[in-house]
What does this fold into?
Amino acid sequence: MYQNFCFLLSFLFMATSCAFSQEQASLSSKIDQNISIVFLSRTKNTKVLAEIIHDQAGGTLVDLELENPYPQNYRAIVEQVARENETGFLPPLKTKIENMDQIDVIFIGFPTWGMQLPPPIKSFLNQYDLSGKTIVPFNTNGGYGIGKSFETIKQLCPNSKILDGYSTKGGEEIYGILFVMEGEKEKRVRVEVQNWLGKIGLIKHAEN
Ligand SMILES: Cc1cc2nc3c(=O)[nH]c(=O)nc-3n(C[C@H](O)[C@H](O)[C@H](O)COP(=O)(O)O)c2cc1C
It folds into this structure.
C-alpha cells in the first residue's frame, strides 16, 4: 500500500515537472523565434553592438549581405553611397528572411552613412511588409550622430511601431579609425544597452 502511494506520488511529481519544463522551453524558444536582429556592418562596430543586443534580448542575428558588395576603398564607397542616395537606387540584397511572417520584433542596426540611412537598409525596409511589427533601430556613427536615419525608418514603415532606438559612437573611418568596440568602450556599451533594453521592455527575463 505504502509502495503504491510512493509510486503514485513520484509519477505525479514527474508528470508535473515535465509539463513545467516543456512550458518553459516553449516559452523561451518562442521569445527567441519572434525577435530578429538585422544589421549592416562594414568595419564590425555595428556587428559587435548587434551581438551585445543579442546577448541581452535573445533572438536571431541576421548579417545583411549584398548581391554586389561595396568597394573596400573608403573614398569609393562614400561616392557610391552618395550616388545611390541621390538616385534612390536600392542595392539588391543577398540575405533573405524566409519566416518574416513569424517575426514580431525586428531590431535594425546600421552605421550612419552620409548622415542618412544606408541604402541597403532602405532596400531591406522596402523589400518586406513590416506592417504591425515592432521595429527597434540601433546605430553606430563616426561622431556626427544618426542624421536623418531614424526618421527615415519612421517614414518607410508607417504601419509599424517604432521604439526608441540606441546609438553610440563607433569608428571614424575618415581618420583611419576603423574598429573601436572593445575594452572599456564595449563594457560601457553593454551597460547602456542593458538600460535601454530595460526601458523599452525587451530584456530577456534571465537578465532581470
Ligand atoms: C560610406 C561611409 C559614410 C559615412 N558617413 C558618416 C556620416 O555621415 N556621419 C558619421 O558620423 N559617420 C559616418 N561614417 C562612419 C561610420 O558611421 C562609423 O565608422 C560606424 O561606426 C561604422 O560602423 P561599422 O563598423 O558597423 O561599419 C561613414 C562611414 C562610411 C563607410
Helices lie at 2-34, 45-57, 74-87, 119-127, 149-156, 183-200.
